[in-house]
Amino acid sequence: MTPRVRRAAFVIFAFGVAPALVSAQQGDPEQLPPGAVVYGPLTLAPSLVVKDVGVDDNVFNDATDPKSDFTLTLTPKANVAFRVRRVHLSYVTSIDYVYYDRYDTERGTNVTSEVRMDADLGRLRPFASFEGANTRNRLNPEVDARARHHDKTYAAGITVRVASRTNLLLDARHGTTEYDQDAIFRGVPLHDSFDGTVDRIEGGFGIELTPVTTYSVVVQREQQRFDLSPSRDSNSWRVSPTLRFSPTGLLTGEASFGYRHFDAIDPTLPDYSGFVASAAIGATIYGRHQLQASYLRDVQYSYDPSTPYYVGNGGHITWTTVVVGPWDVRGTAGRTLMNYRGGASNADTDTSTIYGGGVGYRFSEHARLGVNTEWAERDSDRAADREYRKRRIFASLTWGTMP
């Protein structure tokens, strides 16, 4: 047995047995998730994910001479909630500890946090929130570098109940992105391409169609400004009919389909007007089958100054089926097209595809160990060195709140 395999086996065993032991010590597992602590109005719910424990045969997504390495990611997470009378405070934080055996430049930590306050004042329900991230996660399917960036989003808004099932909605958001000075991809400093601010204001109405389904229509105005590349600045507006599904229903999540007009301030950069969509939906069928699907079509900025933005269009689906007892099988597939705008040709497209599957074992309702194989590839009309092929064989364990 090689040293890498021994390390992987040890990690899987340690984190596979520990959750089962902790879960067995819970006083009433039907009332609380594993490890949850309740003290008066305060609730603390921890969770733990050990993922990507295995071998990545193309760590840097290289077109030629791919590099292989053993990797794992450990992610503890805490969800803290405090409710007193009409005020609800929540705080969620998680840390990724990313390990690579050979290529230590890829090691690091990713920290994300969110704090939110909601108040129930009868017909008025204001909220305020802050989200922050200090992360080396890849920004999108285009940028392969694990480069550190700092993201912040401030938001505030209010919901006004005007009828028994109808609400008016209004909120505003301000976001910032800042890359480290040494963050470079394909010779382009990422702080030149992405550092800047986004200001957004939106308003609309929502109707509770059923106890678990809400329909809303939101009109949004957005301004995006770049600190070092003002030629990329833009104004946008969109209208988005949206369906939201309660976590207690057959369907969960939300789906939005609408229209966006992207107006580039630089007259040499083409505008975009057309269909946009965003969806993240889950469903449980007959108690044995679980479906999770996501889809996104929208304008996204590129790192490349010669093609400042592209229209991303793609989705991902995962199907999990219980086979017998605690055993299940899982299949996953996804495809994303990046249609570039603003260059010499508006027909250049990069296509990313991912598919795979695996088996899983559930120690309890809230603890699952899975072993998976995944294949990923990218094809490009722009340049052959943007293409890659890769395979990963990895194990993951989740303990705590599960999808």
Would you give an account of this structure?
This protein has helices spanning 3-24, 190-194; strands spanning 37-39, 42-56, 69-84, 87-100, 108-119, 124-135, 149-161, 166-179, 184-185, 188-189, 196-210, 213-226, 234-245, 251-264, 272-285, 289-301, 309-324, 327-341, 349-364, 367-380, 388-399. It has an 18-stranded antiparallel barrel. It has a two-stranded antiparallel ribbon with strand order 9-10. It is globular. Residues 1-30 have low confidence and may be disordered. The chain contains two helices and 21 strands. Helices cover 7% and strands 64% of the residues. The protein has 403 residues and is mostly beta strands. Strand 19 and strand 20 form a beta hairpin.
Please render the helix and strand layout as text.
Blueprint: H1 3-24, E1 37-39, E2 42-56, E3 69-84, E4 87-100, E5 108-119, E6 124-135, E7 149-161, E8 166-179, E9 184-185, E10 188-189, H2 190-194, E11 196-210, E12 213-226, E13 234-245, E14 251-264, E15 272-285, E16 289-301, E17 309-324, E18 327-341, E19 349-364, E20 367-380, E21 388-399
Antiparallel strand pairs: 1-2, 2-3, 2-21, 3-4, 4-5, 5-6, 6-7, 7-8, 8-11, 9-10, 11-12, 12-13, 13-14, 14-15, 15-16, 16-17, 17-18, 18-19, 19-20, 20-21
